[in-house]
Amino acid sequence: MPAQVRHQVAAVLSEGPPRLEQIAAEMGLGARTLQRRLDAAGSSFQTEVAGARRDLAMRLVGEARRPLAEVAFLTGFAEQSSFTRAFRRWAGVSPGRYRQDLRTQSETRGPGARG
Questions:
Q1: Can you give the pTM of this predicted structure?
Q2: Which of 38, 44, 90, 109 has the fewest Cβ atoms nearer than 10 Å?
Q3: Angle CA(104)–CA(107)–CA(112) in degrees, nearest 5?
Q4: How many Cβ atoms sit within 10 Å of the Cβ of residue 108?
């Protein structure tokens, strides 16, 4: 259930903050039913929204050609500075540094390397 919620949340993040009622309706559930199911799985709607934002941000920052301002927008942040602060909390480094580290790792492994 949490994975389904994260998927639905990620699909609507760029439209603004996802609402419990909206996601529940997309899943064919009532809002209270969704809350109960997440609670039974040891999670909450807010936890899944935060996780969806983090997962999407990590993936999108890895796309070197995508501007960070666009990543901020697509993950539901109104300001790039807010996104940068959140990303630093999640990854321990700024989005730019994270992207640079990924590029360095890729160059170190070389073409066709797996890992």
A1: 0.81
A2: 109
A3: 140
A4: 9
Query: What distance in Å separates the CA atoms of residue 37 and residue 16, rounded to the nearest whole number?
Result: 24
Instruction: Give per-residue pLDDT as tens, 56-92.
Output: 999 999 998 999 999 999 998 989 999 999 999 999 9
In the chain, domain spans:
2-109
Fold of 2-109: Arc Repressor Mutant, subunit A (1.10.10)
Count of C-beta atoms within a 10 Å radius of residue 97: 13
CA distance 75 to 11: 10
Closest CA to 98 of 69, 52, 70, 57: 57
Q: Cα–Cα distances in Å, from 79 out to 28, 68, 73, 90?
A: 32, 11, 8, 17
42: which 2 tokens?
A: 């040891």
DSSP 15: G
